[in-house]
Amino acid sequence: MGVQLAGIAQAKEKLRQTISPKKGSISKTNDVPKGHFAVYVGETYRRFVIPISYLNHPLFQDLLYWAEEEFGYSHPMGGLTIPCSEDYFINLTSVLNSL
Fold it and tell me: InterPro entries recorded for this chain (predicted)?
C-alpha cells in the first residue's frame, strides 16, 4: 500500500511539472483542460486526456503500478506512459466513466 501511495505522489508531481508552464516557454499542454491530464498508451503511444479523479480509482492505480514496473519514472514520451493496449485502456476508461 505504501509503495502505491508513493507512486501516486510521484505521478502527481510529474503531472504538476508537465502541466505547469515554465517561464519564457510555450506550454505544449495548453490543450489539457483543468482537472485533467494526458497519458500515452499502447505501442504507438496514443495520447489520451483523462480526468484527474481517475488517480483515486483502484483499477487505474493498478495501471500506475504496472507503468512503474515497466518504465520506472523515466517515461519515454516525457509524460505518463501506460503499458497496455489502447483497446484495454478505452474499455477501462469507459467503465470508469460509467461509475
Answer: SAUR_fam
